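ok trying again, last paste got cut off:
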Amino acid sequence: MSRNRRKSIGGAAACWIAMMAWGPMAEGAKVPVAGVSPNNTANPLRTIESVVFSPNGQQLLIRGALTASSTNDFAYTLPLSGGIPTKVNEGTADVDFVPRYTPDGTQIVYSANNQLLRVPAAGGAATTITTDDTRFFHITSDGQRVVYISRPTGSTPDVLRSVLLTGGATTVLSTPTQGDIDRETFQLTPDGQTVVFASSFLNPTSANEDSLFRVPAAGGAAPTLINFGPTAPHIIDIRGVEVTGDGRVAFVADYLVNNNYNLNFVPIGGGTAALLPGFSIPSGADIRDFRLSPDGRYFAFSSDFQTVNVFELYVAEITGGAPVKVSLPFTAEAIDLDITGDGFPDISDGNIDSDILEAEGAIAWSPDGRKVAYIADGEIDNLYELYLVDNPLFEAAPGDYNADGLVDLADYTVWRDTLNSTTDLRADGSNNNVVDQADYAFWVNAFNGVNAVAVPEPGTAGFVLLGLLATYWSAPLTRDAVRSLPN
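nice, full thing came through this time. structure:
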């Protein structure tokens, strides 16, 4: 990794950094993973390459070369607290890209030998989804279909295709006419119905993506152009794409200034790109990778805001405002000279040589938006490990009294258990410093806003809900379940 020089911070940049320093601080720790190399001179070097959360937020799915006898990456599951990872992919073939859980958490999809496979989340025999040349993929939110990048022939640009999770015929979503597509520059809308992708449309022979398109995930229509950047004085380079729940495409690109990578937003239906209100980065800094939280309220991204070429992790609200740094402090490292062999360089140049890993899957959100996992060589240069930090901007949604990211019957339980309390105010949705009937009405309004069904008043019969809650406790909340509650 190249040596880094310190920025001189002044003017607007100094003000921005000052605002950051006043914000909340994140808490977190390195996640210990058995098999990771103790130092960066190990041969082979065993590091972690990607991370995602399980749908229930209880486990991590990582990819890495964690065996001493092989340099191949395998897929593993791991508790949030770390420990000994459990290998889930079958065989010894290299797992090429980020493995992912199906939305119900029962299966894991991965790519190996350029084929797409699925395996039970607990491990077992793999089932081939497609033998088409697969390079990167996403799973639709209904768990029915996989959208992936493919290279049909050796010299043909990478294009988009989709296939049912159960296998079968593949569907062509883009053609070489739309240009080349990189693995980090396509994403699904939250409902899983549409794919948004960036491609080298303006300059087909370029390695850079310069235009945004959308296309149905199931096919049946040609891609529609959303936006392409200015052709002078430069053609933009898009490095990452996400889609918000309110119908905007977020993308990192040097849209306004050549080689200055910032976060831009454009309506999915097309239009002019714009920056977030109150969100800006100092001149000379870049945003590299970014991820939206599952609830669409926050985004996490790596940037060299404070030290040139030292990319740290930040979170910000999707509505705008100053971001907050959340990555743990990097260790000031040395010039890669470990005389004693203890894994730590003995001669220091005083610079920070660490970074958030620049790769798809290096940043992941927990399902409720409370935590962010990231991969970085935070302690030893080029030895990438796993870290887990809290999101200091997290606030429970209105009516979410147990702060699990959902407005459901569990929140009623909190209200019922704390009714009339002036000390335990978790269910004080009306903010009048007592848990009362107004807070029940607050939860009902929030619940109806999410589920669009009516909830009865909690009369005398309503207090037997605690027994009924046990019936529904292990099952997803349904409208029929709510309608059956006593009134």
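cool. The helical segments are 11-22, 409-418, 437-451, 465-472, 479-483. The CA atoms of residues 339 and 346 lie 6 Å apart.
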